Amino acid sequence: xxxxxxxxxxxxxxxxxxxxxxxxxxxxxxxxxxxxxxxxxxxxxxxxxxxxxxxxxxxxxxxxxxxxxxxxxxxxxxxxxxxxxxxxxxxxxxxxxxxxxxxxxxxxxxxxxxxxxxxxxxxxxxxxxxxxxxxxxxxxxxxxxxxxxxxxxxxxxxxxxxxxxxxxxxxxxxxxxxxxxxxxxxxxxxxxxxxxxxxxxxxxxxxxxxxxxxxxxxxxxxxxxxxxxxxxxxxxxxxxxxxxxxxxxxxxxxxxxxxxxxxxxxxxxxxxxxxxxxxxxxxxxxxxxxxxxxxxxxxxxxxxxxxxxxxxxxxxxxxxxxxxxxxxxxxxxxxxxxxxxxxxxxxxxxxxxxxxx
Length: 357
Ligand code: TXA
Ligand code: MG
Known about the structure:
Blueprint: E1 5-8, H1 15-29, E2 34-36, E3 43-47, H2 51-61, E4 70-72, H3 90-99, E5 104-109, E6 125-129, H4 134-143, E7 147-148, H5 163-170, E8 176-179, E9 190-195, E10 198-203, H6 209-215, E11 221-223, H7 226-231, E12 250-255, H8 259-275, E13 280-284, E14 296-299, H9 306-322, E15 327-331, H10 339-349, E16 354-356
Parallel strand pairs: 1-8, 2-8, 4-6, 5-9, 10-11, 12-15, 12-16, 13-14, 13-15
Antiparallel strand pairs: 2-3, 3-7, 4-7, 5-6, 9-10
Helix pairs in contact: 1-4
This protein binds threonylcarbamoyladenylate (TXA) and magnesium ion (MG).
């Protein structure tokens, strides 16, 4: 155990916040790990050029060493020190212009020797993004370093959208936590790679395939199904093969076009589980919460505003653990827009157990 320093910061420019961010940046420069808010989820940062620092990320999270880390920068001028010259095409530039700062991670050929080899997990490529969050940007500027930062959860648990989630998982194992309140998007960045003039979405996230297509109308865009990702030989994000985001209880998803059929099915399933002695939970949406009976019924955002579902998803998954729920049924959503990222995370949380009615 180490003592984890904790700072609360406001997003307005208060001097105490500036002081806290300066202290956190100084810890990063000394090779320590610091968790900080981004617009997607909290990240666990370390100096991406320092192997000892990077190894602390893997140790604290219990992360498999073959899963590479995303590198966070404050502005595009840092790119030339990290990726191969000439690897940035006009397509890359258009994406950066449209979505940075923002929830898009772009995988590019790494400049040999520029980063700890543990950041790239031995790959020839590196995933890079500029986060769209004032605290993250200020911290990156003051640290003056490329910062490797996976989500700041224990490996396998739901990603943290509040500093309290980071504390729950990593207190005593990391150098510090900068608490900037709730994150915004709620699911992680979209990870993409351009290969031979076509775009592969390696992980769906905060930027939707529809938005990418809007910026590159001629581009062929491939979005792998979560189940395909594990087997595909196309380029992929190594992290996608691991079980992730999972509550401790058993969870599966029920999906269908007829809401009455779905809700009747779920209620019968839950009642049967209750009769077997399970403590039961249902993950649903604001519009539908009154239709269900279980030990814990969680309304995760509103179907009429899918971005609220993304924002609340990970906190909702954690509440089942806080209440010791052993049997969870989740309603699925449509794959359109941000729904693609929501279903990707839900399916992983459910170990891909889905009943389609
Ligand atoms: O929104 C986010 O991206 C958050 C915040 C903190 O920025 N970070 C995050 O990092 O989600 P992490 O480590 O939990 O997820 C990184 C994902 C993994 O699926 C990993 O396999 C993939 O990005 N990835 C990283 N580098 C890659 C590379 N060179 N090629 C392919 N996939 C890569
Ligand atoms: Mg993660």
